[in-house]
Amino acid sequence: ASPAARGGSGPRCPALRPGADSRGLHAAARRAAKEHYEVLVLGGGTGGISMSARMKRRVGAANVAVVEPSETHYYQPLWTLVGAGAKRLAASARPTEQVMPQGVEWIKCRVARLDPDKNCVWLENNTKISYKYLIIALGISLHYEKIKGLPEGFHHPKIGSNYSVHTVEKTWRALQDFKEGNAIFTFPNTPVKCAGAPQKIMYLSEAYWRKTGKRSKANIMFNTSLGVIFGVKKYADALLEIIKERNITVNYRRNLIEVRADKQEAVFENLDKPGVTEVHQYGILHVTPPMGPPDVLINSPVSDEAGWVDVDTQTLQHKKYPNVFGIGDCTNLPTSKTAAAIAAQSGVLDKTISMVMKNQLPTKKYDGYTSCPLVTGYNKVILAEFDYAAQPLETFPIDQGKERVTMYHMKADVMPLLYWNGLLKGYWGGPAPFRKMMHLGLK
Ligand SMILES: Cc1cc2nc3c(=O)[nH]c(=O)nc-3n(C[C@H](O)[C@H](O)[C@H](O)COP(=O)(O)OP(=O)(O)OC[C@H]3O[C@@H](n4cnc5c(N)ncnc54)[C@H](O)[C@@H]3O)c2cc1C
Ligand SMILES: *[C@@H]1O[C@H](CO)[C@@H](O)[C@H](O)[C@H]1NC(C)=O
Ligand SMILES: *[C@@H]1O[C@H](CO)[C@@H](O)[C@H](O)[C@H]1NC(C)=O
């Protein structure tokens, strides 16, 4: 099949009209021969935009291009607060054009196929683009359709999901309309981005119902596929305290497999008892969807068996193709997939690429730093920060395992500024220098 035929179901590139004649395709092929960039970036999300800003400084804007079909760039971490009515959706969005570093070419199209042996990629409209260096930042895909009854079920009331821009505002409506019954929050049986988000939403909902006098009507349940509440013991212990105090039930190893939205029933499988399912009536259901690598990476030469970009855990250089690099949610880096992790990765990858460009061995090493502000109320956050070994790696010289108001302001007010003005502009490489400074200051 031609690359265009395998392009998937996403939006088409602007220049391609259905039934485009062969004259158009030939013209594209002629143009394609000229399409070459020193640095080509796939994906214009968190990782792609921050790396394109950094690469612009290394090789000049005219030598960098970003392939990204979407007109809008979202600061996704804000969605936790949007669903709770604490922020508006618009505050998380900016036009892609505005975040694209000036002078960098925005190729408004989906990539359909990667051909690293020939140093080129194919766009969905059959255009070939070649590169000297390739940075893959395609993110993670949401798969609501893997749950029977979804996504159609979202047309019914009492169900929402903060994970997609299409359903996040609906979550807030469902939360406000809640009357009584089971309030079920789910966690899928796949890798996810920001593993804390599925429960942050629950804590905010609990706080909202308490504020509006409905708390006693809600039987709140967190049904998670995991065997623990959080992967780092220090924070897991703190969360379990909160869960006890707020009378929330946690059911481990439960995976949502079906939603009967017309009857408001959720069907779970018990991962420890194959074949055993449980059906639960809900008053509100918050779905965290199964996730996986973007289609274009599945069975691609740059991917591991599961479909994640196969990179060195310390340098972020591809294990097989030395001129290919990966960053963020689409990689197989064994750490929690977050924007905070990408900040730290972007600083390391910038150094790695500059060494590779000089034919030297990369030296700077990524330690797996990632961070998850666990929002536990309308003004409270436990700021979890940790590394590959799941050991806390905290920036501030205070116990971050406690719920703190200061950390809520970090999450709601400081981090968005740092995102738009620091990370996306290629100036924020994570808090490591501050951590050293602040901890030194105390000793
Ligand atoms: C509800 C929620 C809460 C979160 N909370 C936090 C938090 O508190 N702290 C934190 O640090 N992180 C948080 N995150 C995670 C964070 O947002 C992500 O980890 C981060 O944005 C991932 O960046 P990325 O560049 O890897 O992918 P993305 O930013 O998702 O970008 C991927 C891009 O690739 C594009 N793309 C996909 N396929 C193709 C294709 N075939 N061709 C071309 N382009 C393509 C997409 O359009 C997209 O723009 C949260 C996420 C969610 C959803
Ligand atoms: C394919 O899409 C790219 C990016 O939008 C565009 O530059 C190119 O002209 C398109 N080619 C064809 C044949 O439509
Ligand atoms: C805790 O929740 C359960 C189930 O919703 C309820 O029966 C019980 O009364 C609650 N206990 C307290 C102290 O609120």
Please provide a brief summary of the model:
The protein has 443 residues and is of the alpha/beta class. Helix content is 28%, strand content 23%.
Features:
single chain, 443 residues, alpha/beta, FAD/NAD(P)-binding domain, seven-stranded mixed beta sheet, five-stranded parallel beta sheet, 10 helices, 28% helix, disordered N terminus, binds flavin-adenine dinucleotide, binds 2-acetamido-2-deoxy-beta-D-glucopyranose
**Helical segment tally?**
10
CATH topology heading of the largest domain: FAD/NAD(P)-binding domain
- Mean pLDDT score, rounded? 89
Number of strand elements: 21
Give the fraction of residues assigned to helices. Answer: 25-40%
Bound molecules: flavin-adenine dinucleotide, 2-acetamido-2-deoxy-beta-D-glucopyranose
CATH architecture of the largest domain: 3-Layer(bba) Sandwich
CATH class membership of the largest domain: Alpha Beta
What gyration radius follows from the Cα positions, in whole Å? 22 Å
**What does the largest sheet look like?**
7 strands, mixed
Report the principal-axis shape.
globular
Taking pLDDT < 50 over at least 5 consecutive residues as the criterion, the unreliable ranges are 1-11, 16-34
Beta-strand residue fraction: 15-25%
The N- to C-terminal Cα distance equals: 63 Å
Superfamily at the CATH H level of the largest domain? FAD/NAD(P)-binding domain
Instruction: Give the class from helix and strand content and strand pairing.
Output: alpha/beta
Quaternary class: single chain
GO molecular function: FAD binding; glutathione-dependent sulfide quinone oxidoreductase activity; quinone binding; sulfide:quinone oxidoreductase activity
Enzyme class: oxidoreductase
Family: Belongs to the SQRD family.
Cofactor: FAD
